[in-house]
Amino acid sequence: MEQPGRQATDDIYGPELGSLPSPDMDDAEITKTGTTTVGITTTDGVVLATDRRASAGNLVASKRAKKIAEIHPRGALTISGAVSAAQALISNLQAEVDLYEARRGEEMSMQALSTLTSNFLRSGAFYIVQPILGGVDDEGAHIYSIDPAGSVMEEEYDATGSGSPFAYGVLEQQYEDGLSNDEARTVAARAVKSAVERDTASGNGIIISEITEDGVEIEEHDDIEQLL
User: Fold this and answer.
1) Residue 150 sits in which domain range?
2) Which of 60, 80, 124, 164 is 20 to 30 A from 6 (CA-CA)?
3) Is position 31 annotated as part of the catalytic site?
4) Is the Cα torsion angle 116, 122, 126, 129 positive or negative in sign?
5) Would you call 98 exposed, middle or buried from its count of C-beta atoms within 10 A (0-12, 13-18, 19+)?
6) pLDDT confidence of 23, banded at 50, 70, 90?
7) CATH of the domain at 193
8) Which portions of the sequence form the region Disordered (predicted)?
């Protein structure tokens, strides 16, 4: 029964005024994440790797897309999904990490950083982004898989993007406990190379990052073979 002064609605869980924002695209576009990103934990820290191609439908929009960004003195994020949303997410994370450290005088833990990233994605403001968060803190090396809805899973290795099925094939076969950073670089490069050979949305070289207690190093290579 309708109560005086209240607007009738078919959805009893919906907002009383207005409606929640929703992305102006169909489900096929929402789930489209053309790229390949890989993260591996090691005895030394973490290795992240991505291709460098940014696609817009069937067009190669960029051959030098920056898909790994340092967001913490000992942590970095890979990009998979909408570029504008990912760039905004990175800027917000960097600002929040700096603010946290300025207020508390200590580095944010990787678990706290994964929760912060999850909360940003859960808000819906950065939809269509599926990052891998990798970093090192006092508890060791961490890789977090974070989906566009904000769920967080800590993994020993992970892959995202349209090339991830091909990358996973390599990771499943070649990952093992006790890999050094140098060994993990080779495995990550092979995983990205496998994806590039079969996924048209991935290509144009590789970006690779090593994260240790000393910090984050990011380098780019035009030819993946340089790392094999």
Assistant:
1) 34-55+63-227
2) 124
3) no
4) positive
5) middle
6) very low
7) 3.60.20.10
8) 1-28
For 49-58, 92-101, 105-114, 158-167, which range has the lowest pLDDT when averaged over its residues? 49-58
Per-residue tokens: 57:
């439908």
What the block records as the tokens of 4 is: 């005086």
Instruction: Give dist(CA 225, CA 212) in Å, integer.
Output: 24
* 51 occurs within a structural domain: yes
The answer to whether the beta carbons of residues 58 and 158 sit under 8 Å apart is no
- Give the total number of structural domains in the chain: 1
Mean pLDDT of the region 38-61 = 92
Cα-based distances in Å from 84 to 22, 90, 91: 17, 10, 11
Residue 140 lies in a domain: yes
| 27-37: average pLDDT | 61
Distance (Å, whole) CA 36 – CA 110: 23
Q: Which of 44, 89, 81 is nearest to 65 (CA)?
A: 81
> How far is Cα 169 from Cα 112, in angstroms, rounded to an integer?
31
> Residue holding tokens 């309708």?
2
Mean pLDDT of the chain: 87
Query: Above pLDDT 70, what percent of the chain?
Result: 86
From 33, 35, 50, 78, active-site residue: 35
> Taking Cα atoms as reference points, which of 39, 94, 41 lies closest to residue 207?
39
Neighbours of 10 (CB within 10 A): 5
Rounded to 5, what percent of the chain is helix, strand, coil? 30, 30, 40
Stretch 174-198: mean pLDDT, rounded?
96
